[in-house]
Amino acid sequence: MSDVPFIEVEQLRDMLNSAAPPVVVDVREKWENDLCQINGSKLIPLGSLPAHLAELPKDQTIVMHCHHGGRSGRAVAYLLQQGYAKVFNLKGGIHAWSERIDPTIKAYQ
């Protein structure tokens, strides 16, 4: 989804090491999260996102991710419609994270 704000995996790595790290939300399904995850991420599958809005702070930066970026792009668009301003899609998703940041994370198809 090219119309939503995104960040590169290197930007997320740097943000996670900052004084004010973002909330990282994994919108994949539980079985995918069981295979691999970004440390510290919060699992909220895309289909259940509306029921979990109260868990997401509007005053913090939120980075959404999925496998490659499609579902998380839809999640970002939804949060923007709900009044969230500091929300970003992780470009390339956990797949890009495993390739460029943490090769110990299992890649899957």
Question: Can you give a write-up of this model?
Answer:
The protein is an alpha/beta fold and 109 residues long. The chain has helices at 9-16, 30-35, 70-81, 93-100, and strands spanning 6-7, 23-26, 42-43, 62-65, 87-90. It is built from four helices and five strands, in the order E-H-E-H-E-E-H-E-H. Strand 4, helix 3 and strand 5 (87-90) form a beta-alpha-beta unit. The protein is globular and about 35 Å long.
Topology:
Elements: E1 6-7, H1 9-16, E2 23-26, H2 30-35, E3 42-43, E4 62-65, H3 70-81, E5 87-90, H4 93-100
Parallel strand pairs: 1-5, 2-3, 2-4, 4-5
For the largest beta sheet, what order do the strands appear in spatially?
Answer: 1-5-4-2-3
Given as residue ranges, the uncertain stretches (5+ residues, pLDDT < 50) are: none
Rg from Cα: 13 Å
For the secondary structure, the number of strands is 5
Q: Which outline best applies?
A: globular
Annotation field: number of helices: 4
What structural class should be given to the helix and strand makeup? alpha/beta
Q: Percent of residues in beta strands?
A: 5-15%
Order of helices and strands: EHEHEEHEH
N- to C-terminal separation? 20 Å
The proportion of residues forming helix, as a percent range, comes to 25-40%
Sheet having the most strands: 5 strands, parallel
Mean pLDDT: 95
